[in-house]
Amino acid sequence: MTQQPRSTTGTPPSAENTGTAPAHPPLAAPRPPAEHRVWPRTFHDRLTAPLPGLKAFARFAREGAVRPGPAGLADIPRLPHAPGPLPRVDARTVAVTWAGHASWVLRIGGLTVLTDPVWSRRILGTPARITPVGVPWGDLPRVDAVVISHNHYDHLDAPTLRRLPRDTPVLVPAGLGRWFHRRRFTRVTELDWWEATELDGVRFDFVPAHHWSKRSLTDTCRTLWGGWVLTDPDGRRVYFAGDTGYGHWFTRIGRRYPGIDLALLPIGAYDPRWWLRDVHCDPEEAVRAAQDVGARHMAPMHWGTFVLSAEPVLEPLTRVRAAWQRAGLPRERLWDLPVGGSRVLE
User: How far apart (Å, rounded) are the C-alpha atoms in residues 27 and 19?
Assistant: First the structure.
């Protein structure tokens, strides 16, 4: 993952109207799957603030804090890793299993959905993963859909996606369809913020995030970024935030999608704070985000898998637990799973 843009909490242009939002804005009608769309050349106007300038790069080069020191890496053997069998489910069961980083095996409405699947041992520009994948690929049931949050290498992994049948439904941000079509995927649905599609009775809404996109030297912000809200036929909702900093979008997501049962929120890759604040939540901000969206449960992710920044490897877990306790939230509603761990919504 490369350098991130800076942002503020102001409201950028978006697909949502900019007037005062009602308490529960109406949801968009689902768009047809695999619809052909034409997108703008760039999504720079969706950035919460401009990309970093030369001064920011110079400071980063001077300080050079990109990885933890030896003390911060000493806890790698203590990182929680407890793979187990996937829960048995039926069409009315909602269950999640953390495969590591932002990769979840989500069972909802009778579907098996993968989020940002990365089963590779190594991603470009980053040391090898420090915890093994929590779910062996061969143990997965048939994958009914994949959702992608954005195109950074730790979220869009070509070697993993090559393992999937090319007729697997893939739901992606606006502009990212070409990447999949070049790899012969045939059922690719691209969505803008606040748009939705349906698959076998499960609704998939693409929602904003405070982030950016880049995969090569020439494609900065050429594709969109965001998170996903999945709603089953019984109205149960799971919010997968993807990669995001803290900001105003969480409150808007909570208004538009009331009754979120589970929020999968990133808590790692946040140090140095001045460099990463605007695009990666720290643990305390992730707890605030869970409250903003009105989630009944929160499951942390985006930590303990790849070393992407300078905080000690175990620190995100200890800080999110402390922040949850300070917020006075019920301990049983923080699903701080080990890699490979599973939970089922009651």
Answer: 16
Cα separation of 99 and 299, whole Å? 13
Q: How far apart are CA 114 and CA 54, in angstroms?
A: 38
Using alpha carbons, list the distances in angstroms from residue 135 to 105, 117, 279: 9, 11, 28
Alpha-carbon torsion (242, 243, 246, 247), positive or negative: negative
Residue type, 289: A
- Please classify residue 77 by burial: count the beta carbons closer than 10 Å to its beta carbon, then call 0-12 exposed, 13-18 middle and 19+ buried: exposed
Q: What is the pLDDT of residues 144-157, one digit of tens each?
A: 999 999 999 999 99
Distances 194 to 7, 26, 27, 46, 268 between C-alpha atoms, Å? 21, 10, 8, 13, 26
Asked if 270 contacts 281 with a C-beta cutoff of 8 angstroms, the reply is yes
103-108, strands of its sheet edge to edge? 188-191, 170-173, 145-147, 111-115, 103-108, 95-100, 342-344
| pLDDT per residue as tens digits for the range 300-326 | 999 999 999 999 999 999 999 999 999
Look at domain 89-344 and name its CATH class. Answer: alpha beta
Taking alpha carbons only, the member of 232, 229, 222 closest to residue 27 is 229
Q: What's the order of all strands across the beta sheet hosting 260-266? A: 196-199, 202-207, 227-231, 237-240, 260-266, 297-301
Residues 296 and 203: their CA atoms lie apart, in Å, by: 19
Entry pTM:
0.92
Tokens of 270: 């946040």
Domain range summary for the chain, segments of one domain joined by +: 89-344
Count Cβ atoms below 10 Å from residue 128 Cβ, excluding itself.
10
> What is d(CA 116, CA 149) in angstroms, rounded to the nearest whole number?
7
Please tell me the number of Cα atoms within 13 Å of 121 on its side-chain side. 1
